[in-house]
Amino acid sequence: MLRIHRLRIHSALALTACVWLGCDSSATAPAATNPDPNAGRTLISACGLVTQAEAEAIIGKPVLSMKEDTSGGTASLGAKYITNCAILSSLEPGAILPTRLSVTAFTTGGLQPLFHLTVPVYFANLKTATSAATRDSVADVGAEAFWQKRPGKLSLYKQDVYADISYSLTGKVIDTSASAKAACIAAGMKAAEKI
Asked: In which region does residue 181 sit, left (phi positive, over 0), alpha (psi from -120 to 50) or beta (all else)?
């Protein structure tokens, strides 16, 4: 009891000294920093998650274009929360479409007002809805990631950002090959570094 009484006296003396002598406002405690720079953001740049140089290293040839589309979302709700980055390279011999690396991303800030979900909850729901036979867990990519075998894409999340990554050497919409999986994982690792 005596100890608490002394603590109150010391606190009162410190406050009195501050009032009489003036306190240095710069000596206040540092503001808490948010460990997630994307917290609260409605949109995130999908093209900012994989650079042109990184895409070229993954694809193995020069990138001809990187186009970001920010029109994704729910038209009926009048909201945009999804961004997509289409990264295209040259045609492979015999292919009709160019080599394609695609990154789609959204944040809790964009998702929650529309669907009342956070990115981690969305990811958990997606994982539960995807049968274990059609997915492979992928270690060391973001907080958690898995390869969806049938659509041929990597789904990952870290903090408040979710991303889907797909790759096709021949530009096909669905590429479930081992090389597509490896390219998606390499791109996913680069994306997770930036989240």
From this structure: alpha
SS3 at position 119: helix
Q: With cut-offs at 50, 70 and 90, classify the pLDDT of residue 72.
A: confident
Q: Which residue has the tokens 């390869």?
A: 147
Q: From residue 140, how far is each of 105, 137, 193 by CA, in Å?
A: 19, 10, 11
Beta bridge partners of 83: 105
Q: Quote the CA–CA distance of 2 and 24 in Å, as a whole number.
A: 31
Query: Rounded to an integer, what distance in angstroms lies between the CA atom of residue 20 and that of residue 43?
Result: 49
Structural domain boundaries of the chain? 52-194
> What's phi and psi for 61, nearest 5 deg?
-160, 165
Query: Which token pair is 141?
Result: 């990519």
Q: What is the predicted pLDDT for the residue at 32?
A: 43
Q: CA-CA-CA-CA torsion for 56, 191, 123, 169, nearest 10 degrees? A: 0
Burial of 71 from C-beta contacts in 10 A (0-12 / 13-18 / 19+): exposed
Query: How far apart are alpha carbons 104 and 100 in whole angstroms?
Result: 13
* Cα gap 183→102, rounded to integer Å: 11
Q: Look at 64-68, 74-78, 102-106, 124-128 and tell me which has the smallest mean pLDDT.
A: 74-78
Q: Quick: pLDDT tens for 145-164.
A: 999 998 999 999 999 999 99
Q: What is the mean pLDDT of residues 66-92?
A: 80
